[in-house]
Amino acid sequence: MKRNLTSLLCLALLFLSASSKSAKKPITLKKALTDSFVYVPSGNVILNKDTISVQAFYIYQTEVKNIDYQEFIADLKKKGDQEKLLVALVDSAKWNLRSEKNSAYETYYHSHPAYSEFPVVNVSHEAAMLYCKWLSEKYDEKYGTKGRFLFRLMEKAEYVRASRGDSDATYSWGTHSLRNDKGQLMCNHAQLSGENIHRNREKNTYEIRFNSAVNGVISYADVLAAAKSYWPNQFKVYNLNGNAGEMIRDKGVAMGGSWQDPGYDVRIESEFLYDGPNPFTGFRVVITDVENW
């Protein structure tokens, strides 16, 4: 009986010791991330004729969606953090940035369940940075990692790496064409045809024109597509070209064009400047484990 009791005590101590070691074992980044993040291996990219080495990283498959951003806003409201809330709030009025009147999008796009899986737009660069910081803090709370997991906006070189991979393609799906071999469009962008092109004989230039009797100013009937639409690229990342332009870490610069841009302006190298919230620009996050993968 005494021997049995001693054996049971030893087993219990071994179990507690093993449990203690298991509890202290740090969680790996791969285990902490959901399936929504995918891995981009290290590689070289060419920017302005310079070859840049990019370390491996994890990236969100889609741009941050309305449903993701709503959770962020709800958390700020719950905490009563008015200062951050003022920075983070979506500026829905920017749907009417130009002469078009998009009152339906202004009213419903950022709140109606029908658009929950669509990319969030009309947010500032500061708001996107604040979202990344908030997401880092949420992971720290969940895993007790104390600043180990850093969520952030992409560097320009990381955007190019995630888009192009090891190819020399014009677009992120690995070809130089806007359509696949079945004739299907590969991204959401403004479609123009010969009917829209005018030759200015005095300037000897070509210009885009729209017949107001037929087209109105320009047709944006479909506007943005769902964040996970069309087809993913080799790393299983969606909509790196067109749809919503990609904010990067450099403030005021977005990559890859948007739903309002024609095919030439949704190339991997395409970049445009913005000066605040607008309906053409969204963002996605990448993550770094500041210790190791």
Report on the structure:
With 293 residues, the chain is of the alpha+beta class. It has a single domain (29-176, 183-188, 227-289), classed as paralog of FGE (formylglycine-generating enzyme), CATH 3.90.1580.10. It has 7 helices and 12 strands. The chain is globular, with a radius of gyration of 24 Å. Residues 1-24 and 212-221 have low confidence and may be disordered.
Oligomerization status of the protein chains: single chain
Distance between the termini: 49 Å
SS-based structural class?
alpha+beta
Average pLDDT level: 85
Binned, the helix content reads 25-40%
Residue runs with pLDDT of under 50 for 5 or more positions: 1-24, 212-221
Note the overall shape. Answer: globular
Fold-level CATH name: paralog of FGE (formylglycine-generating enzyme)
Q: So, the CATH homologous superfamily?
A: paralog of FGE (formylglycine-generating enzyme)
Total strands: the figure is: 12
Radius of gyration: 24 Å
Largest sheet: 4 strands, antiparallel
Which CATH architecture?
Alpha-Beta Complex
